[in-house]
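Practice problem: predict the structure.
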Amino acid sequence: MSTHAALPANKHSLPLAVKLLGSMLFVILLAVGFARWQGVMSKQADAATVWQRDLIFADGPNGSVVVKDALSQSEIAQFDGEQGFLRSTLRALVRERKRQNIGPDAPMQLLGRADGRLTLIDPSTQQRIDLEAFGPGNAAVFAGLQTAGLATQQNIQILENNRSSR
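Answer:
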């Protein structure tokens, strides 16, 4: 006599609810795939730009990335080491510049939006990267460039104003 419990006659049969759920998921995946294939995408409108800074990115000594303010031509930041996100973001924009034979001296625009999002735009190629898509830690690398180098300029202006008021 066998000690094993008797198995149902059709061991590959799934409950009806599981079959219906699987069919629904399959239909949804087909619909989404078809919509994407047709180019249907919901594009979120950009929030208003609340600040903009024109920046020039250049290769520095020992493989660093030097960032200059495009208006003053002064160096505002230098990124040493790997800087994976910064480098890959810039590489994506520079690739299109090289393809169109555009030099590295044209500034890129860092835009701060009213909803807190950041966008890096290359006006020379019309390429853009919405930085918030890569998470707050990665976007923070570029967010620091909003005020980089401005503190020393503001301090100088305050001192000059104090001297002229005497």
